[in-house]
Write a structure and sequence with these properties.
The longest helix has 22 residues, at 130-151. This protein has one domain (4-151): Alpha-D-Glucose-1,6-Bisphosphate, Chain A, domain 4 (2-Layer Sandwich). The mean pLDDT is 93. With 152 residues, the chain is of the alpha+beta class. It is built from three helices and seven strands. Strand 4 and strand 5 form a beta hairpin.
């Protein structure tokens, strides 16, 4: 018997960066790759970036412990400097582990910007769970913050 678990979370981060810089970190391939597609813990094997409604992003990489991770996201809604909505699937070593809907909302603040990331996930067969996905998303938003700080 297969198992399905549902989970959701919302993460809010304030960054001392202009909203145009925060937006560019998602909308410009080189800027997104700085925080989303790189890292010392893995070796990239496939990357695709198509930032438009209907466009497909792929980030596949092998972690140094040998695990192969694959992310495929389809952009379903984009409103410049306001929001991005995606649906995405994750695989580990070829096994489909989850399908999620994620939104990223952008808000101007005095002296910076706020990003609100909300996600609803369907986690499959005990291979993934909401707590792990939230943890991974927190790490990505930390990496985004470090990237924005170096671009300032």
């Amino acid at each position: 018997m297969t198992a399905v678990a549902h989970a959701g979370f919302t993460l809010v981060r304030d960054y001392p960066a202009a909203i145009a810089d925060l937006w560019a970190a998602f909308a410009v391939e080189e800027r997104k790759r700085d925080w989303f597609g790189g890292g010392y813990e893995w070796t990239p094997s496939e990357w695709r970036f198509d930032f438009r409604v209907g466009g497909l992003d792929i980030d596949e990489a092998r972690f140094h412990n040998g695990v192969l991770s694959r992310y495929e996201a389809r952009y379903t809604d984009i409103v410049e400097h306001e929001r991005i909505v995606t649906s995405y699937d994750m695989w580990i070593d070829g096994a489909h582990i989850s399908t999620s809907v994620a939104s990223f909302e952008f808000e101007r603040l005095d002296g910076g910007s706020r990003l609100t990331h909300t996600e609803q996930g369907v986690h499959l067969d005990g291979l993934d769970d909401g707590a792990g996905r939230e943890y991974g998303s927190r790490l990505l938003l930390d990496a985004l913050g470090r990237t924005l700080a170096t671009k300032a």
